[in-house]
Design a protein that fits this description.
490 residues, mainly beta, Porin, 18-stranded mixed β-sheet, 25 strands, 12% helix, globular
Length: 490
């Protein structure tokens, strides 16, 4: 009798669970039927993300306190204004947000300043169109330059000012300390403190439109970019810091910089690659048309748990567009996400995230700054390469640079614990990673002989799904670096 009662009880539980699942499925189907056009089920957010997704309008953001080995201490903040809509909105389960406006401002000890305003509206006015607007301004007195060409893969090399003999430096800090040592010439002190630096000012304005096909998985993007750049070098200028061999501080004039040497050397990399853009403080204008074809099955763009992202992007600049430059810029990129483990009622997970990119720049008159980033249309400014917070995280930013760039990032993203605080949802995780990349002068020179790798580990804080806080530490043979910022690197 007890066995029959227990069996009946189990059957009742299964029936209730089935009815609940049926109601849930009917609700999903009902919402899907309200969509003005079909969207693939692959684009639907995972159940755990939907459970914690916040409704309506809300604001996230944090003050940012950073330390950069190049620029010293920095302070600023990022503010996100988001509208998610309600759960009755048929797009609620298919978009990270209905619209997002973000603002950013940072200022560093060395005088670097950056401000940005971005707007992103998926399925604008409930159509297949997406609108993105970006306005970015920054200036940097210590922008980095280690050369352009495959020769940048060689070790750091300079005259050892203690011995007077040129030698390789295995550590970045030792190399920079050597540059700052002053020596006397013609009655004044000369230093190379700014040898690998220049002063950069930049204004960027992006207007991008997307049209989705194949139930939201295929996106055709086109847009227009205006870029204003002002570049000057430090040759003949007084250096902020200079030291004698005994460590005594002295006033010194900076000797010829690397960017000046390479831009004026007959038969050098600037002449071979048709580069220009060292404006001595004047403004140069780059006018570009942008095009991209994107196949995207990710479930949640800011923090995907599954799906792929494939992109071909192309930027074109020419005098008939009002540009002072004439070049083409290409990039092919692939991303893969797969959550292969879940536990704690699906609230915790382990996700493999992989990204590979190849970029190429060529033309009759190329703004040299276009070599410095892969032309990803997923965000303003592209991906800075190779070195720095979003490429080879263990190397100094733009340490390796050439017309052809290859980059691979592998991350194992864990979501270990989540909690709510003041009606805000947070998820905590750890992310070990491996970055790999190299550069070549031409496609014909591509091989795997000079791949640079940097392992590292990071922490992640997911804030209401749409905001990711990132802390990364990485090592390379030339040193180690720490970064803090917003968003996954891909």
């Amino acid at each position: 009798m007890h066995k029959i009662s227990f069996l009946a009880f189990c059957l009742l539980l299964f029936a209730i669970k089935g009815l609940a699942q049926s109601d849930s499925d009917e609700k999903k189907d009902s919402l899907a039927q309200k969509l003005p056009f079909n969207i693939s089920e692959e684009k639907r957010l995972p159940a755990d993300d939907l459970e914690n997704k916040k409704e309506g309008f809300f604001i996230t953001g944090l003050p940012q306190f950073e330390y950069d080995p190049i620029r010293g201490a920095g302070i600023g903040g990022t503010l996100f204004l988001l509208q998610n809509g309600t759960r009755d909105d048929p797009f609620f389960e298919y978009t990270p947000y209905r619209y997002r406006i973000s603002t950013e401002f940072k200022v560093f000890q060395n005088g670097r300043a950056r401000g940005a305003l971005n707007m992103d509206i998926p399925y604008v006015f409930n159509t297949r169109w997406r609108l993105r607007l970006d306005a970015v301004y920054w200036e940097d007195p210590n922008a980095q330059y280690f050369g352009i060409g495959s020769h940048t893969l060689r070790p750091l090399r300079f005259e050892d000012k203690n011995t007077g003999i040129a030698r390789n430096f295995s550590r970045m800090n030792d190399y920079l300390d050597n540059l700052s040592i002053a020596r006397e010439r013609d009655g004044q002190f000369i230093t190379d403190f700014h040898y690998n630096q220049y002063f950069q000012r930049e204004q960027l304005y992006n207007f991008l439109f997307e049209r989705v096909f194949l139930e939201g998985k295929l996106r055709l993007m086109f847009g227009y970019e205006m870029l204003f750049t002002s570049i000057s070098d430090y040759t003949g200028e007084e250096a902020e810091e200079a030291f004698l061999r005994d460590g005594q501080s002295v006033r010194a004039i900076n000797d010829t910089t690397l960017i000046f040497k390479e831009s004026t050397r007959p038969g050098g990399s600037w002449e071979r690659f048709n580069l220009s853009g060292l404006t001595n403080g004047d403004w140069a204008f780059t006018s570009m048309l942008a095009f991209a074809l994107i196949y995207d099955t990710r479930d949640l763009e800011p923090d995907p748990s599954k799906g792929v992202f494939l992109q071909y992007s192309h930027e074109y600049s020419a005098p008939f567009l009002g540009s002072q430059f004439d070049f083409n810029k290409f990039m092919v990129q692939g991303q893969y996400f797969n959550t292969f483990a879940r536990w704690r009622n699906n609230k915790s997970r382990l996700t493999l995230a992989a990204m590979g990119s190849i970029g190429y720049v060529l033309g009759r008159n190329v703004n040299f700054l276009e070599m410095f980033d892969l032309s990803s249309q997923a965000e303003a400014g592209g991906i800075l390469v190779l070195g720095g917070p979003r490429s080879l995280r263990g190397y100094r930013e733009v340490r390796f640079l050439a017309p052809v760039v290859g980059l691979v990032n592998l991350e194992l993203r864990s979501r270990l614990y989540d909690f709510k605080l003041s009606k805000q949802h947070f998820g905590l995780g750890i992310t070990p990673f491996l970055d790999m990349g190299s550069v070549w002068d031409t496609f014909g020179e591509m091989d795997l002989k000079n791949i640079r790798t940097t392992p590292g580990i990071g922490g992640r804080i997911a804030w209401n799904q749409s905001t990711i806080l990132r802390l990364d530490f990485a090592r390379s043979p030339e040193g180690s670096q720490f970064f803090f910022g917003f968003g996954h690197i891909f």
